[in-house]
Specification:
mainly beta; four-stranded antiparallel β-sheet
């Protein structure tokens, strides 16, 4: 079993920044990818970004590319999502997820993500 706990959400003005953290604990064996997803009210869940187990490979949704950065600190068992230049369309509940899946398509599909965090609210408002 693997537990994921997100933190770092909150309220920020348009153009501002937030950093989300996803702390993992438990058995990480077999987990190849950790991803971030988000779901806004009335919308389907969508992939935001993902990172490989070693941290050497990342991918982003087009909507956040060049604004968001995913990193991981394996010594701290934590994955981060740095969100800059936040826009009014970014508010959502953000979830981190992990699983023994291929890296390919890890943003476009939530298949293979076995473990999910509880979610963290991000609000962008002036």
């Amino acid at each position: 079993q693997l537990q994921l706990v997100e933190s770092g959400g909150g309220l920020v003005q348009p153009g501002g920044s937030l950093r989300l953290s996803c702390a993992t604990s438990g058995d990480t064996s077999g987990v190849n990818v950790i991803g971030w997803f988000r779901q806004a009210p009335g919308k389907e869940r969508e992939g935001v970004s993902c990172i490989s187990s070693g941290g050497g490979t990342t991918n982003y949704a087009d909507s956040v590319k060049d604004r968001f950065t995913i990193t991981r600190d394996n010594a701290k068992n934590t994955v981060y999502l740095q969100m800059d230049s936040l826009k009014p369309e970014d508010p959502a509940i953000y979830y981190c997820a992990a699983g023994p899946r291929r890296f390919r398509g890890c943003v476009s599909s939530d298949g293979g993500y076995v473990y999910w965090g509880q979610g963290n609210q991000v609000t962008v408002s002036s």
